Amino acid sequence: MILHLSFRNLFRNARRTIAVLLTVALGAGALFSFKGFINGILDDYRENTVHAHYGHGQINTMGYRDTVYEKPWKYWIKDSKSLESYLSKKEEVEYVFPRITFSGLLKKGNLSIGGQGEGIVAKDEAEFFHSLNIESGKALKNEKNGIMLGKGLAKALKAKPGDSLTIYVNASNGSINDAKFKVTGIFYTGSQDFDNRMFRVQLKSAQSLMKTSSIESISIGLKDHNEWDKFEKGFAKDYSKLEATPFNVLDKVYYQHSVDWLNTQFAVVQVIIIGIVLLGIFNTISSSILERKQEIGNLRANGESVFDVMKLIVTEGTLMGLFGTLFGIGLSYFVLMTFLHHGIKLPPGPGLTNEMFISFKFNWKILAQVFSVNFVVVVIAASMAGVKVAKMSIAKALRSY
Amino acid sequence: MTYQKYIYKLKNIFFNYKLGSLEVAAINGISLNIPSKALITLSGPSGSGKSTLSNLLGLIEPLQKGEMLFNGEDLNKMSDAKKNEIRKHEIGFIFQQFHLIPVLSAEENVAYFLKRLKLPKGEVKKRTKETLEAVGLFEHRMKKPSELSGGQKQRVAIARAIAKDPSVIIADEPTASLDQKTGREIMEVFKKLVKEKSVTIIITSHDPMVLSYAEHQFYIKDGKLDKEEK
What we know:
The complex is a heterodimer of chains A (401) and B (230).
Chain A: H1 2-9, H2 14-54, E1 57-61, H3 64-67, H4 80-89, E2 93-108, E3 111-120, H5 122-128, E4 133-137, E5 146-150, H6 151-157, E6 164-170, E7 176-188, H7 192-197, E8 198-202, H8 203-210, E9 217-222, H9 228-238, E10 242-246, H10 247-250, H11 252-291, H12 293-301, H13 306-339, E11 344-346, E12 356-358, H14 364-391, H15 394-399
Parallel strand pairs in A: 3-8, 5-7
Antiparallel strand pairs in A: 1-9, 1-10, 2-3, 2-6, 2-9, 4-7, 5-8, 6-7, 11-12
Helix pairs in contact in A: 1-13, 2-11, 2-13, 2-14, 11-14, 13-14
Chain B: E1 6-19, E2 22-35, E3 39-43, H1 50-57, E4 65-70, E5 73-74, H2 80-89, E6 91-94, H3 106-116, H4 121-134, H5 150-163, E7 168-172, H6 180-197, E8 200-204, H7 208-211, E9 216-221, E10 224-229
Parallel strand pairs in B: 3-8, 3-9, 6-7, 7-8
Antiparallel strand pairs in B: 1-2, 1-4, 4-5, 9-10
Helix pairs in contact in B: 3-4, 3-5, 4-5, 5-6
């Protein structure tokens, strides 16, 4: 009966009900759109980070990333073939990329610049690391002594595809070693710091330069990024002297900090939207209830408890919350998918150099989150509005005009 | 429920209203016994305290000072939940302003509190039909309050009050918004109810026509019992 009466009460003052529904819908739509937008940015960030450099994660010897600073090659992974074979057979793993990194001095003509080199199996990496944008030339694939330069590094060296340069390194045996390379292409990832210092050569060339047969790390490309935890758990069981680190930890400065930054921003905007919705609904439902004081007094006189009256008011709020939230989410989804399905062009993010095209990305979790947050807000607003009148003395409520 | 000879016994009742920092005495030491199964009137000039007394009898104002028994039960020892239960089952209210629920039809208004009593569906239907027929409004049962005249609205309010089969009906100025003819018709309904349903009806009014129907009259003046007539 309470549900029936609450439903009928929605039609008591159509203009007011529409005002509440629109407030709720606006709040739900704003939260849903913003959450979808943030999710789109985070997805883009994640894909960019994974497919530009790190993969979904990386294998190193235990403690290598945090504790080893001097002569790191001493701690590299020896006899990596059996490990690569093990990883390739793992159910969650799709790609296995052995790598080494090293510091070197790049010399072209009279110019000498220090850089950070990566030895990679270029042919295998070309497909997975598609976020590595080629500014000029082509991606390194089979060229034995080819080198790809980061955009900033190439600019500093005044190098272009086809140019030759020499790399000098401090090899693992302590000697100075050098080799000649030919620039195949110039790349950029959008991360300025990365593009200013990185260069890439074939793994075998790098190992030859460093006079080592070991590898420093193995980057992993998973079939599904959600499977990292499962992979990590299984790997830790099988290789206790090695450790697997996910990309968000590897790229804490850019990826994880950006995620935290955006999530904090979302939380602030969410609080603002919730505040507006809460006050809007509280105000509208309050005036609606105040007009019905006598009616509520009559309900109370006839034995309805404060709790019963609250149930009635909260049910009304709940119905408005339900319809308003569904309407708001439905409408915003329709508008975004119809008019903005290509996304929105954004200027470069913090630490990035290229513009981003962000699309709105929704999933069931977002839908459930927005629905429940908005729904709870409406119920709270209705409860806040109802409690005063429900608790009012019956005689006073009946006397009020 | 077994009814006592007196449904209400009031002893030395006081009641003050707070108006800002002022305290205004509305009931000033009333003691009276209200007999069961009779048509009772509470009358007196405006501001005499009759509506306050009616609210106290309806358990919708808290007892501030004095002793009051409802059907033998001491209100001073009664919890709010118990008072709610008494109002829900034992007391029917009829107000001058009707206080019908505007979004429900006449039939739904009557059925609402019956459903809240958790009566079986068939019983709700039966009582709704019987009471609407008793007040002559069955053919208007689908109409909303806004489609009914003042007299018809008051009849719906009466039907709603009697449908739950209370032992007392408290009616505050039930004919004040009605013309004399309709008022008389309403009073005939009350008279019939007392006779047929053995209910106690307590009416607050200063209308001589209403008072002429009373079996027992209490005159209130300045918050005190001025006169009692049987």
